[in-house]
From TrEMBL:
Keyword line: RNA-binding
Record keyword RNA-binding present: yes
Gene Ontology MF annotations: RNA binding
Protein known as: PINc/VapC family ATPase
Ranges of residues in domain K Homology: 484-563
Amino acid sequence: MKIVPDTSVVVDGRITQKIEEGDFKGAKVIVHESVVAELESQANKGRETGHNGIEELKHLSELAENGHIVLEYEGKRPTLEEVKMAKGGEIDAMIRALAVEHNATFVTSDGVQSEIAKAKGLEVIYLRPEEPEYGELEIEGYFDEKTMSVHLKEDVEPKAKRGDIGAMRFRKIRDRALEGYEVRRMAQEIIEVVNRSDEGFTEVEKDGMTIVQLRSMRIAIARPPFSNGHEITAVRPVAKVDMEDYRLSEDLKQRLIEDQRGMLIAGSPGAGKTTFAQAVAEFLNDHEYSVKTMESPRDLQVSGEVTQYSKLEGSMENTADVLLMVRPDYTVYDEVRKTDDFEVFADMRLAGVGMVGVVHATRAIDSVQRLIGRVELGMIPQVVDTVVNIADGAVERVYDLESVVKVPEGLVEEDLARPVIEVSNFETGDVEYEIYSYNRQVVVMPIGEEERGKTGGAWNLVKKEIQREIGEVARGYVDVELVGDDQAVIYVDEDDIPFVIGKNGATINEIENSLGIDIEVKSHEERPEEMVDESSGAGAGVETHGEPADVQVTSRHVIMELDGMEGETVEVYADGEYLFTATVGRQGDIKVSRGSDIAEALEDAVDANRRVTVEEV
């Protein structure tokens, strides 16, 4: 008997199994060189399938040496391009041709290849992939009921993140370090179960990294050269709860089921955001809404009625296109992090799909600020109307977003009326923040008794804007004193007064009209003594703010490097003097074109050796 196995049946070890069972005893096994090349390519990329296949070939050699079979390798070794085209069927075609040449039986565990070989007139043995039942995996022994994640690395003591929700601690769980063979053994067991059972699937497979979903665990397996050692990180939910466990008000539950909403679930890592998102998904499903999810990787623990989608061809935009055709009532998006995620979330919401997004944010208002610059300001309440903040596994606060036209809190001129997004406490109805555009910048203003006084948020904003506007025409530094809701006194150098007032008062009138406030111009010599005492001497009469920032001037741009603040809205100061407000880009920087007013202000600050700092809004 002559048999020609394909790659699939070599990888799963079925050929040697059949030989040892006596089915292929004495057979001539002809292995095409393309099988060896494909397995070698996979092994070089760190993939377990390649290593498993090579072990099977070694086992065949041992059986041949012991006289159980005759083993031959034939065929032309494929080119690198042909190996790359393996998924397109090039390698399988070569193997089938070898079977035809030798009038041999074609052996495969791939259903498609079996049918193609039969269509080509070959004698075929189809070995259906076995799906053995696996008991507890070795890695599962490191988990207990309060373990969220297990972290295993060769030559390092095993560690785990354990504890109650919101109080997880990263701790050592064994004194003895893991040997390399132990980590590789567990990795091989995980891959084998994923490939040979219906208990899991491979989410990502790249050189040196495999991510799988197995049972309730999401497992990342890293190998050199991608990592500096073999490592396994396994994460699983520590709790599955329903909406009743959160003791939410009936009004909030009714809010979700009375109409499709745009909701953000915010919280710090480990706070319980995903657990709450699962509860929301099940709650909506139980109330006869069609619910889908968008996840990468898929790790929400939801019932089978909720279909879970990942990236389609590597893109959530493609997934969104499919969902817009499927038209679910609600989609749970876990997690919304990058600009592309926010844009997809907004597009689906504006298309009428109810959206629930999970966002990493320490405060609930921070999650709303992530939308600024990514969604047109006036559209934000249409995209997100509800924000739920999760802390220590519980709902800490719920915000309602609504757009109104009004004069922002702390400003009184009717001319200053504009669209304002009110962020209200859902339970009490109290407005806690206002978001609006003021003189070319977006303002997120906290509202409260302490903010309404003359040293409060709105007054500080007006002072900064007056300083900025006057600073564009004055050459020296500017002090501002607010003497009423619509009145201010500014103090400038004596020589700057004519420039600030302008011909026939044209300059100061234009600034007054722009800001909606009456301004009296005086020299610094006329400042009250208490203002002189309070002045910092840094130029603008305000204290230094925030963290130091590195400013670089190139031929075309002025760049501020702000690593770790991607997407944050910040205020920029020079020696405590407010310069401007900006949103940090995706690359962790603020890039301003040279020649603009903002760039010139930064360049002047650098030239004068002034301390440039930033402060999160």
